[in-house]
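job 3f2a | input accepted
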Amino acid sequence: MSRAKEPQKPFLPFGNPFRMISPKGSQLSPKLLRLLNQFEETLAGRIKMLKPAAKEDILSLSWMRCAVELLCGIHSDIKSLITDLEFPVCDWDDKWIDLYLDNSVKLLDLCISFSSEISRMKQGQLFLQCALHNLGADSSKQFVRARSSLDGWRQHITSKNPRLDNCFCVMDGLAQMLELPKIKNSAKGKVLMQAMYGVKVATLFICSVFAAAFSGSTEKLMDLKVSETYLWAKAFSDLQIFVNTEIRNTDSSRRMTVLKELEAVDTGVQKLYPIVQDGVDPVEAKILQNSASDLGRFSDKLSLGLDLLAKEVDRFFQIVLTGRDALLGNIRTRIGDSISDQVETRKKKLGPAIR
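job 3f2a | predicted structure (355 res):
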């Protein structure tokens, strides 16, 4: 992707978030600086590993599973960082808590939408199984059924999933929340917010890619502008340019889908359909057998890829949900302790009057 000579405008109109979390005169202790650097270096390493060796690997189900593994890793890393910071929830600003809770519920919504689309594609496999089963019998009636199943697969796979429509609205909301709250008199808070910014950028990018892959539309594919001051900025920029460029090139070719395994199945269906439709003579019998075998192999690969991706999305869902529940539990404990303290204080004040 060529770069314009003039500086590019950021995708979101809120300027440089690093400036907002680095007020003048603020200094981090060596320990906090070490923890922050370790987190950002780990994030950079994870992002580098996600960049595929070849453009053909982009948007394969195996690459998408690796992308969700990255999300699981970095969301686990932020939990470890909070522990290492020795920064209990009782010391968090209410703005940070609201931000975390709002972000987490949006991520859960996205996971549900993506899981719904994976399930829908898996359901489409039933049509292919029926078609291949009917092609195993040498009967004109079975061929008619096979053709009907292939038609059913085409209609199913090109239909729209209503749950995906919500993805773009949710991602727009996440994008607007990338802006970080100002940090005052809290070095640990500064480290936490800067680390969370990296997590949110990587998460939003991957969710944007998934939405484009599942919807077949690149109109809302995001290009996030990140300050070069972050240790992970270059790795992220390289990955984003590489992936987004290839996705847009794929979309411009106007193929049915940008998912590699699904594209292979569609190619197999297109090759098989005319033979089934026109009937098979002895000369074409071998071609039919080979085409059916290829389609079965492509279908099996798609099914396996969807199963593995579904498991990884579910694992990410559980990580986000567990983190959210833990935070809510800490908040309830904090509120309970506060109420208990107020009751004890009131008892002490009323004690002399009662006696």
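job 3f2a | The chain has ten helices and no strands.
job 3f2a | closed
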